[in-house]
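Dear Dr. H.,

I hope your travels went smoothly. While you were away I took the liberty of generating a structure for the chain from your last submission, since the lab meeting agenda had it listed for discussion. I wanted you to have the full record in hand beforehand rather than looking at slides cold. The sequence, exactly as received, is reproduced here:
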Amino acid sequence: MAPREIALSQPTAVACCADIETPALTNDEAEGTARLFKALADPNRVRLVNLIATSPESACVCDLAEAIGVSQPTVSHHLRKLLEAGLLVREHRGAYVYYDVDRQALRRAGEVLRVNEEVPA
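The corresponding predicted structure, in token form, is as follows:
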């Protein structure tokens, strides 16, 4: 079996996000972080990330539409937003497009919300 080729999206908003406790976020970091949260602000997008992340294989739009009960164009719209935010990667296989979660981007997204447990005195 040949190695999978995955077409990566453009540079991502997630890559420029900073830990929420960064003393002074730059405008770019604040905008990138806001785009990340905006991409995940829709329940269908959260469900899509969850379905793709827990799937043993890449997920096709046709399967995702049925799984969350919305039309294929609606799923495609949501997937595009998640791809633009850098949370997904896609692979073209003939006429179909398959999606995977970018695990590194998810780790970076989790770091955005990491808060120091120590309370300043």
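Two observations you may find useful: The longest strand covers residues 88-93. Strands lie at 59-60, 88-93, 96-101.

With kind regards,
E. W.
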